[in-house]
Amino acid sequence: MAEGLIRIVLDILKPHDPILPHFATFLSKLRGVEGVNITLMEIDKETENIKVTMQGNDLDFDEITRAIEEYGGSIHSVDEVVAGRTMVEEVTTPQD
To answer: Which residues pair with 80 in a beta bridge?
Structure first.
């Protein structure tokens, strides 16, 4: 049963290399990761701004950070975090 972080969404700036399929595969091999989704948000001459969603069982934020930095990337923001034993989806309320 899952514990700790089970989903994390990160805004990351990375160089063009490694290409996104290789970067996703690399991240998917980290301990506890069951799936990785990468969306290209913006691209310029030297870098890519990407949104990375990682889901799994007891994700290790420090290990994820080190892995991203190992490939020349940097985390701009942590946009979503889900922790615990079950996925809790955000809901819209009348105030939204």
So the answer is: 9
The residue among 77, 84, 19 whose CA lies nearest residue 48 is 19
Please answer whether residues 20 and 40 qualify as being in contact, where contact means their C-beta atoms are separated by less than 8 angstroms: yes
Write the burial class of residue 83 (CB in 10 Å: 0-12 exposed, 13-18 middle, 19+ buried): middle
**pLDDT tens-place string over residues 30-43:** 999 999 999 999 99
Query: Is the pTM higher than 0.85?
Result: yes
The whole-angstrom separation of Cα 55 and Cα 81 is 10
Q: Any residues with CB less than 8 A from the CB of 67 and at least 6 apart, and which?
A: 26, 27, 30
∠ CA 70-73-79, nearest 5°, is: 120
